[in-house]
Automatic annotation (TrEMBL):
Its EC number is 4.6.1.-. This is Adenylate/guanylate cyclase domain-containing protein. GO terms for molecular function: adenylate cyclase activity. GO terms for biological process: cAMP biosynthetic process; intracellular signal transduction. CDD domains: CHD. It comes from Tumidithrix elongata BACA0141. SMART domains: CYCc.
Amino acid sequence: MPDKMLVFTAPQTDGKLHLRGELYPVAIHDTYAIDLTLRYDEDGAVPLTYDRLIDLNPKGIRASLGQTLFVMLKLADSVASPSEVARVALQFLLGRNDLQEVARGSLLGSPIVEFEYGVEPAEHALVWLDGNSRTTEAEQEGAYYVPLFNLLCYRSKILYVYEQSRWCFEQLQVMGGNMRQKGQTLAAWSSSDADKQKFMREWLDEIPTQAIAYEAYLRDMESHLIASEINIKNYTLWLKRLRKHCFIEDDLGFLEIFGDVCDSQQQQIQIDLQLAASMPAAFASTVPILRQSLESQVADGSSDRNILSAVNNNGKVLAAILFTDVVGYSARMDRDEERTIELVDRDFALMHDIFEREGGVLVNTMGDGLMIRFDRVSQAVDCAIAMQASLVSAAKELPTDDVLQHRIGIHVGEVRIRGKNTLGRDVNIAARLEGKAAPGSICISQAVYEAVKDRLPDGVLVERLGQVALKNMGYIEAYHLTLSR
């Protein structure tokens, strides 16, 4: 549990339960989360009837997108149908009857039931029925808490990213529909129509703004796909850790089912990206068509002279993005989770010193990998070379089983910086390049290579990979950098 918490007691109200509670602040990498717990009668001396449960939720607190309402009930007597008890209790607590049971299982020896309610996106609730002393003892020990909290946090992030991606796609559909409608309107006009020229000029003026907005939505969707992959990876990791604190007879299948949801969501984002990918070309081809049509009707084309240059004025910044990950991380985690985490943390400490020295900014940590941003390409490449060299040097003093090999990918391009996040297509390219690197090597794009090819240090071997296929990114010219041993 967190080291710090805010304990509070609500004012006593006649005829109502005297509520107590705790507020736990938690930092999970780049995300801040809270656990708000409401309880009454810590000694459990006064049992509750169903109709009093509403007193635990007097303001009608609801779980928003991705959040989980987690209800723990200590049963006064054994029950024949835990699922029905959970349903009725939740109905009284929330004051609604549209609860849909999604799954059921057991946690720390007691039944737990999962519900969804409301319209899309559905709200989420877990009702845990503590019916035996083993559950009470394990719950009070609290070893399960951090894995479960992190698991639910990544569930929230996965759902949030998916909803954001779908929202972006809806905006793209609207923009695409508007463009088709304008095309149909233009086709219906006769060449002698006096308003046709005005319509074309207005459309021509709109296209740069529309193209920039469309590209932003498209790149955001690509970023959401990458984020989804990272969050699913972390969800799986914390599910494994939760299992370590569970009983042998526990059934966590209700948490595993969410993995199927994640797979279908990722497929949907990929389909959306494929459907939307052709529209930027339509924007680009429309500009010369409109210009040619205008120039055939009027001699003065000055009003649209700078129309294309505006497309590049999009508020992006140039940056080099570096990704790392550990080769064989999942297999190591399956063999010895605690030791693997210790080894990764050891290497991260070494890498942290190096990228700080080279002027890098840590953007994100993904289980076994880092995402780092640099202002200059040379900084990113120097950092990657120094990381691999330091890892090789450190490995000479380590037992073979304690040596981790890292892959590194680097790309340079225009990105958007939003708070602590760095977003954009070029970020996704860097992430894909990392997966193309051989163990202990660095994979860079041609843009990176052209910037540093004349200043690479002796002992760095360069191999041209040619055109490599990147998932959802098409093809890109890439190079391998390997340190001579």
